[in-house]
């Protein structure tokens, strides 16, 4: 589908916590493995209809807060690919069905790129907030 029609097909928006298991992510050139562990990839808790937000969610503040400290603070206007382009491009290589979720990625400031690196650990609390959509709060727990 063309980018100028892509937003017509969106029901709404939510918040996603794109947590990564970095040691597995680095075992391959494909990032998928490090982003698809059980209990990672939190989604919600709100779902906001597209009609009540700016087209493509453009111009909304997005923040990640770790233990009360903002570690990422950006704006959706700064996305490398806007929502319409993402939906259009994805629809060219796979069928999108009602209920499908597209996760757009994360702003700069990820822990692996910091000096020194900042790793989440059990006991931490990670919050992701998107203006107009809501706040997703996740406690970090260890594996058994």
Q: Average pLDDT value?
A: 86
Helix and strand succession? HEEHEEEEHEE
CATH architect. name:
Alpha-Beta Complex
Query: What is the level 1 CATH name?
Result: Alpha Beta
Number of strands: 8
Q: Give the count of structural domains.
A: 1
Q: Briefly note the CATH topology name.
A: Fumarylacetoacetate hydrolase, domain 2
Return residue spans where pLDDT drops below 50 for at least 5 consecutive residues: none
Spatial strand sequence of the major β-sheet? 6-5-7-8
Percent helix range: 10-25%
- N/C terminus separation: 45 Å
What shape does the CA trace take? globular
In terms of DSSP E residues, the strand content is: 15-25%
Q: CATH superfamily, called what?
A: Fumarylacetoacetase-like, C-terminal domain
Number of helices: 3
SS-derived structural category: alpha+beta
The largest sheet, given as strand count, sense and whether it forms a barrel, is:
4 strands, antiparallel
Give Rg in angstroms. 16 Å
Task: Provide a short characterization of the protein structure.
The protein has 144 residues and is an alpha+beta fold. It has helices at 3-6, 22-25, 83-91; strands at residues 12-13, 16-17, 42-43, 48-49, 61-66, 69-75, 125-130, 134-139.
């Amino acid at each position: 589908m063309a980018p100028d029609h892509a937003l017509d097909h969106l029901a709404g928006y939510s918040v996603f916590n794109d947590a990564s298991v970095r040691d597995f992510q680095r075992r391959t050139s494909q990032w998928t493995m490090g982003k698809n562990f059980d209990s990672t990839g939190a989604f919600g808790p709100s779902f906001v209809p597209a009609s009540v937000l700016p087209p493509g969610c453009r111009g909304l503040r997005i923040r990640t807060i770790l233990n009360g400290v903002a570690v990422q603070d950006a704006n959706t206007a700064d996305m490398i690919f806007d929502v319409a382009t993402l939906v259009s491009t994805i629809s060219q290589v796979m069928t999108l069905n009602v209920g499908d979720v597209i996760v757009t990625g994360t702003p700069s400031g990820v822990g692996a790129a910091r000096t020194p690196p900042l790793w989440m650990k059990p006991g931490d609390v990670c919050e992701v907030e998107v203006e107009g959509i809501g706040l997703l709060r996740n406690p970090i727990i260890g594996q058994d």
